Here is the input.
Amino acid sequence: MKTLRERDLNIDRLPLLESLMFLGNGYMGSRGYLEEFSYPGSVRGNYINGIYERIPMNHAEWAWGFPPDSDRMPNLVDLFAITIFLDEEEVVLDGEIEDFVRELNFETGLSARSYKYRTTAGKTAEISFEDLLSFPHKELRVWTLNIVYDGRIEVRNNINFHFTNVSGKEDPRLAHHDYTLAEVTGAQYESGQGEILIETLRSKIQIRFDFLDEGEFNSSSVKDDDAIKIAFTAEGLLKLERMVKCRDSIRKNDSEFIPKRELYSKQREFLQSVEQRARIEFLDNEELTAALQLYKFHLLQSTTQDVYGNIAAKGLSGEGYEGHYFWDTEIFMFPVLLLWSRERARDLLLFRYNTLPAARFRAIELGHKHGACFPWRTISGTESSGYFPAGTAQYHINFDIAYAFIQYWLSTKDLDFLADYAMEVILETARTALEIGSFQSDGFHIHCVTGPDEYTAMVSDNYYTNKMAQHNLEWAIKLWRILEKERPGDWLRLTEALRLKDYEFENMSKAAR
Here is the structure.
């Protein structure tokens, strides 16, 4: 089965389906909310991978090394909030809705929804939506609304300039405090063309949405300090196609609008290419095969397409864990992506490499003389965990990251990548292993760390941490010898740049036994 399909409108399931039927392309992501309705539990979320705001972190008591701020992925402007009127009667969720069908197609990347709505006067409208976020052109999105009705049709689009994130003090997955993360700094709409300029308040990251409306309708619009309000009207048939283009100041990306038909065609070609590399079927279990198709598509939608993002804990499906990146990327998702798409796997590693300076600084901040301490949770590359026992104390994340770099080497034997990026990370995390461990009469031990089981914190000789550190140390030595033999110039460059000493490798070898 190549689709996730819902044939009934169950209001209680809608919040769950917002996550399951989200759309993303690794750069942009949008929850699968119903654009024309409001209902309990709905989160009208629209996100960009790698965009963050810095939020003050409150500690009961402050101590050296506690992060003063944390990253948070902002929810951005909702361009698709609409209300539908049929002969001036509002289409409502508890109205008479028939033949409701909704699907997410893994072959086309298209989200589609349709239903029939019967007015109180007994007249029937056919309403359908399509939405696509392009993989080949990650800055582009096309959203389509069609309404067939024997009467007057009006669609009111309210683009609100005030957008917020979800918070909840009782849910550990959510931020506990409400902050305004971003604001609209400019907006306009005229003759079917609009733009929204947004800036995060402290990190000063800028985002720009351009959009173009075409179709069969008449329109009028007004703009005030709070919103752009657009009214689309028609008799009998209303067709609205909205092309959206996104840019941000981190990537400094830009692209041109592309016709809808071409976007659809290229999307299908892209997904066919992915499926050829990632096809998995359970011949005797269609249900399991269908579930795997959904998981594969979610992973593809959530994985960055460049070196400026990563894979958030909830992908681009929502704000759980504030959009932070964890060790899950390197251990659970990277190995899959290495088989599917070497380019995307490489981007994930380059994201970590680009945050290496911050990791080195964090190691010094934690009292280490050498090495790199990558953040337990982050977007920007700085630590966003305020709870040491279940955060920074999970030193295994450093060895998890090294593990991914080692896996890339084993898969590619890419000497250029080893010399330019991987070797440096693997050596610095190996140094971290030596920093947190100690030699004792019966061998090398690592005390007072937290392993993957966060509910058993601050233990000695956690098996997972020890084995991953050992793996890191062993491969640091192996790869260093390979580099010395194959690339003596790069070997010398790194020796001097990292101020490496022979005794460090002697200690690595001794600790890894």
